[in-house]
Amino acid sequence: MTLPDNSFLPAVVVPPHMKQGDTFRYAFRVRDRNLDGTPGDPVDLTGVTVRSQMRATPQDAVAVIDFDAAVAVDQVASKGVVLLEGIPADTELVDVPEGSLTKEYYWDVQLTYPDGRVQTYIDSTIIVHADVTR
Amino acid sequence: MAAEVRPRVAKPANEPQAGAQDAREASKVPPVEEAIRKAWSKRDDTAR
């Protein structure tokens, strides 16, 4: 059973790590929430589109990376699964200041359902590590 | 001396055992790792 939409808050996840110049991959599964607060069944995401961007600050006009994001094609074996990928050509352009090992960026993941409903499921940061071997 | 003897009542064979409901609930949802692994695999196969 799903709670009303206005009860929804995006998850603040443990920030994933991205290495400059490497392929970045991230995946998660969307599940309903039972009335008692426990996770319910995975949600069928057929027809859902996914957008995910990373910015230096949430207010920045320019996105640093526009991830290749989509729901799993097979919504039976991988019901509710969302996949995101940043290719090396994009991750190598992410700035990490001179003399720093890492820099924190902001990202979220937005799903648009066939009925037009837009829901943000992840609202968090990504820790980008400077490339050394290049 | 008379002893009171009460008949023993056997549990019906189909009576759910403790935890059985939880196990059934858990079995409905495949592990997230497996669902994600299959999703990447399918995507990589399609990309080839």
Mean pLDDT of chain B: 68
Q: Could you state the oligomeric state of the chains shown? A: heterodimer
Most extensive interface, chain pair and sizes: A-B, 18 and 12 residues
* Largest beta-sheet details of chain A: 5 strands, mixed
H and E string of chain B? HH
Structural class of chain B comes to: mainly alpha
Percentage of residues in strands of chain A: 35-45%
Percent range of helical residues of chain B: 40-55%
Strand content of chain B: under 5%
Cα shape of chain A: elongated
Q: Helical region count of chain A?
A: 1
Find the structural class of chain A using helix and strand composition.
mainly beta
List the strand order in the largest sheet of chain A. Answer: 1-10-9-5-6
Concise structural overview:
Chain A is mainly beta. Chain A is built from 1 helix and 10 strands.
Structural summary, described in words:
In chain A, the strands form three sheets. Chain A has a five-stranded mixed β-sheet with strand order 1-10-9-5-6, with no helix packed on it. Chain A has a three-stranded antiparallel β-sheet with strand order 2-8-7. Chain A is built from one helix and ten strands, in the order E-E-E-E-E-E-E-E-H-E-E. Mean pLDDT of chain A is about 90; it is low at about 1-5. The longest helix of chain A is centred in the C-terminal third of the chain and has 4 residues, at about 90. The termini of chain A are far apart. Chain A has one helix at about 90; strands at about 15-20, 25-30, 30-35, 40, 50-55, 65, 70, 80-85, 100-110, 120-130. The radius of gyration of chain A is 16 Å and the shape is elongated. Chain B is mainly α and about 50 residues long. Chain B has helices at about 20-30, 30-45. Chain B starts with 19 loop residues before the first helix and ends with a helix. Residues about 10-15 of chain B have low confidence and may be disordered. Chains A and B meet through strand 2 and strand 4 of A and helix 2 of B.
